[in-house]
Amino acid sequence: MSYFFQLVVSGIVVGSIYALSALGFVLIYKSSRVLNIAHGQIIAAGAFITYALTVMVGIPIYFSFFISMVITFFLAMSVERIFLRRLIGEPIISVIMVTIGLMSIIDGLIYLTPFGTENFSFPSFLPTTPISVGGVSISWTQMVGVLVTFAMIGGFTWFFKKSTIGISMRAVSDDQLAAMSIGISVPRVFGLAWAMAGLSAAAAGGILGNITGINFDTLHSFGIVVFPVVILGGLDSILGAVVAGIIMGLIQQFASGYLDGNWGLSGTGEIMPYVILLVILLFKPHGLFGIHEIERV
Amino acid sequence: MNMNNKIKWMFLVVAVFMVTLPVHTFAAGKVYKLGLSLAITGPTSDAGNPYAKGVEDYFNFVNDTKMLGEDKIDCTIRDDQYNNDITKRNFEDFMSQGIVFYLNYSTGSTLALKKDFEEEKIAVIPASFHAGNLIDSNYIFLPIASYSAQAIGLAEYIVNNHKGGTPKVALFIHPSAFGRGPVEDVQKAVSAGLKMEIIEVVEHGKDLDNTAMLQRLLSKGVQYVISQTVQSPVATMLKDAAGLGLAAKTFGEAGKLTFLGCHYTGGNDLVALAGPAADNFYWTTSYIITNEPSAGATAQLDLAKKYNRDEKAANSHNYANGMMVAQVATEVIKRAKAKGKEINKANLYEEMLAMNGDKAFSPGTTVGPVTYSKTDHAGVDSLQLYVVKDGAFKSAGTPFIPVYTGKIK
Predict the structure, then answer these.
(1) Which one of A70, A71, A140, B202 has the lowest number of neighbouring Cβ atoms within 10 Å?
(2) Average pLDDT for residues A99-120, to the nearest whole number?
(3) B259 has which bridge partners?
(4) Which residues share a beta bridge with B200?
(5) Which among B81, B180, B209, B230 is the top mutation candidate for probing chain A, defined by the most A β-carbons within 10 Å of its own β-carbon?
(6) Is B203 in Cβ contact with A118 (below 8 Å)?
(7) Contact yes or no for A139 and B244 at CB 8 A
């Protein structure tokens, strides 16, 4: 039975990190209907900035983690201001193509630094003995990852529900013209959405970097790995990202724990989330929590 | 000066130039063109980047120290971003430039270009040690023991050092030809009498957490995990095992997992990624390491210093890897020259095949000599086992040649 609970805990850990990584997609899509294909690169950049501040500058890792979030906040805001602001009103596909270009540019820039082709790891700052309760173990790295994830998701949920800016962002997401008519600055909202996505990406990068080590390929590929989570959650729902993330994490762990190694099966932990995604989308094409818009003519 | 005089002077200048040009060319020696296509950026560039530096530095060293007299090696190095299409394009371009020797990189592109190498009849050394590269191929030469030999070597080490009963082993592999390569050969070794039990072959993905897999393996009595992949997934697995308290502190510790891996799973990059969780990881390769004194290590560090490489590149086993293939290519050119042969594809291929017996080549960067023949296209047969202690790889025992590699042929 402890094996089952161990898989549940691991599934929740993995799922919540997926959710945090997926949050950046959701935040941008929610306000601007744009899918930022370069999100994985921003996740990687967040990890690299945290590492550089910690190891090269000598700032304690807790502070570098927060400073890197502030830096990526402004970095992502600048990216929106420089590359995407002028595309407001242009077809969405053009904007998505720009994010693909952005992905290549960031890739190229990172390859100019040692982070592009070298491997690093954060200095140890957490106890190495796992937390064990009733035969179920969780490492401190994972525990901190889960706590940061839930804190951030809680913060964003509050922000969107209670703060004036958050409500403005939801208004822009619902109807840009109507939002403009009541005095909301749509460009400012877009900038803020990108900035917040940058902030969440840095958090995800820091946590992922702690778990996998700092390797550019591994980190930026997470932008793609979490895509099923974004689709399953419904693209514009923070709650959806959390629920879908945890569902995906659990499916992965259970498939790996109970199917792999039996009946000649292997790698089902990789495949099963996609199979379940397809099945769910058959019945709920907009994802679990996606808004189904009905246009009346 | 009138027009006629101007024309006369121009003819004179051109004539002098034409007469002196061949003299200058002769004085400057010949230029032998080589090509290398590899991932300097993109997937696996953490290995490709230092590899490229090793190749580049060694050929610069050959030219700067006039190792080939007045002759020079011109090796064009191109980034293919781990993309087979780009590799093919690079190779075709190199061929049109008249290369006499080719250095390739990935398993995928080596397999994909195998027929092209046969058609062009050019000797090729890839950075991939996949035994399958050699099937139906006459022109591919592995620099060191194949992944299969490495995995079998690790399996033999397990069998020889395991206490109590038949050891239960899992293989943790990359989901590609590169990763799957040695599985069948290890199974053949078991069928041929190697006393161990392969409980499971795990093809990993981009896993954030390996808890389920590790617990499953332990529940099946697995004690050893042999990895054939790259460092990043191994680092995640080691971190998970350490975090869950499942990693063995000593080799074969009962109720725990002992981790071992082939060439591309280990080296300083693994320690950089996994940190303290890398301790007690067993790794095999045919290359020397720089944190243990040897003539090869000194040569490697001196070369890197001469060409201003940073500490990471200088101490990378992939820098040694790149340096070594450049050493082999240079050696066959030297040998062909010494025999007065023309430096072309056919003669260099002939010299590769003759590199055996008293003509075996010891580059210093490997733990054994490089030998090739018509029937042996794997360069260094010896392997060295290393283990991580206090964050650095240390030799465990002396170089060895896996016994079962010969038995399953």
Answers:
(1) A70
(2) 90
(3) B225
(4) B170
(5) B209
(6) no
(7) yes
Smallest CA–CA distance, residue A135 to chain B, in Å, is 10
β-pairing verdict for B197-203 and B258-261: unpaired
Question: pLDDT exceeding 90 applies to what percent of chain A?
Answer: 30
| pLDDT digits 0-9 by tens, A33-80 | 888 888 999 999 999 999 999 999 999 998 999 999 999 999 999 988
User: Dihedrals φ, ψ of A165, to 5°?
Assistant: -65, -40
The mean-pLDDT minimum among A47-56, A92-101, B254-263 falls in A92-101
CB contact under 8 A, A213 and B239: yes
pLDDT in tens, B25-74: 445 689 999 999 999 998 899 999 999 999 999 999 999 999 999 999 99
Asked whether the predicted pLDDT for residue A263 surpasses 70, the reply is yes
Q: Is residue A33 part of a domain?
A: yes
Testing the interface with B: which of A7, A212, A214, A258 to mutate, by most B Cβ within 10 A? A212
Query: What CATH number is given for B28-145+291-376 in this structure?
Result: 3.40.50.2300
Which of B79, B211, B215, B217 to probe the A interface (max A CBs under 10 A)? Answer: B211
Which parts of B192-316 fold into alpha helices (H)? 211-219, 231-243, 268-274, 295-306, 311-314
CB contact under 8 A, A261 and B205: no
> How far, in Å, CA of B147 to CA of B131, rounded?
7
CB B239 to CB A137 under 8 A? Answer: no
Specify the pLDDT at position B26. Answer: 47
Architecture of domain B148-285+385-407: 3-Layer(aba) Sandwich (3.40)
Q: Which residue has the tokens 């706590």?
A: A147
From chain A, the residues in CB contact with B171 under 8 A are none
Whether A5 contacts chain B with CB within 8 A: no
Strand partners of residue B225: B170, B259
